[in-house]
Amino acid sequence: MTIYCSGLPNDQDMIKALGSLAVPIPIAFGDAVFWGASDTDEPIRVCIERKKIGDLAQCIITGRYLHQAQSAKGAGMDVLCLIVEGPQIRSNPDDGLLDMLIWGINPRTLKHSQIWEQVKPAITYSRFDQYLTELEYLAGVIVKRSADVKETASIIKATWDNFQVPPSKHGSLKQIFSPPPPLVPLIKPSLVQRVACELDGIGWSRSLAVAAKFGTVKALVDADVKDWMEIDGIGKKIAEKVVAVLRGER
Fold first, then answer.
1. 231-244 burial, b if ≥16 CB within 10 A, otherwise e?
2. Domain residues for 218?
């Protein structure tokens, strides 16, 4: 069991919590990466990013995490996981801003106790929660919550365990599960893919395979019915329709 971890100073506590499983290496994206089992000869590449609550609030404002996620996808990572690490949070009852529960001096009692403190930079609870929902629902990022670095390490270990079993061998959802397609690819689509997705019968579900097959818009336009039928999921009827449209016959 090997989990490759960023060797940056802010990840040293995570490396310590993972113990002998962690192998610190210079990586340009993510805080931890590992390989998992797939149903093909290619491994599943998993990238885990850890964000403290304040850091994630900053990322929502600047777009930094989305840039990091795109970099990870561009480097060939198949699965992205975001662990949001920090204490309990709430919506402030007065202004709706995001608060977190910390140990500090209670201004009323002047005693050391748990108090609610506004997260900095300031962000509303609803915006924070909406961002995490969109990551899961639209971008397919696995989002986890962790109270501290020890729980973060436990989540990383459990995630590693999960991905050592090929998708087809998981049994918990066997009666109802079929793998869904990704809803929003984090890699910017090529020109060929954008053209292909507009063709009737292709759409986003097949546009990536079309782009991989033809490579350029000219090759896509010049292709005949036989060429189109070589793409998985495209039969003679769709191929004939696409060729007719591209040649101005429809």
1. beebeeebbbbbbe
2. 191-246
Q: Is residue 49 part of a domain?
A: yes
Please check whether residues 74 and 197 belong to one and the same domain: no
Q: Which of 52, 65, 56, 183 is nearest to 129 (CA)?
A: 56
Q: Residue 134 maps to which CATH number?
A: 3.40.50.10130
Position of tokens 């802010």? Answer: 10
Q: What are phi and psi of 144, to 5 degrees?
A: -120, 155
Residue 118, beta-bridge partner list: 99
pLDDT along the chain (250 residues), means of 10: 89 93 89 92 93 96 94 92 97 97 80 90 97 95 96 96 89 64 66 88 84 91 93 89 86
Same domain for 140 and 198? no
- Count how many domains the chain has: 2
3-state secondary structure of 65: helix
Task: Kindly list the distances between the CA atom of residue 48 and the CA atoms of 26, 89, 153, 170, 200, in Å, as whole numbers in the listed order.
Answer: 15, 22, 11, 21, 37
Asked whether residue 110 is domain-assigned, the answer is no
Model pTM?
A: 0.71
CB 201 within 8 Å of CB 225: no
**244 alpha-carbon distance from chain centroid:** 38
Taking only Cα atoms into account, the Rg of the chain, rounded to an integer number of angstroms, comes to 23
Check whether the bond before 180 is cis (ω within 30° of 0): no
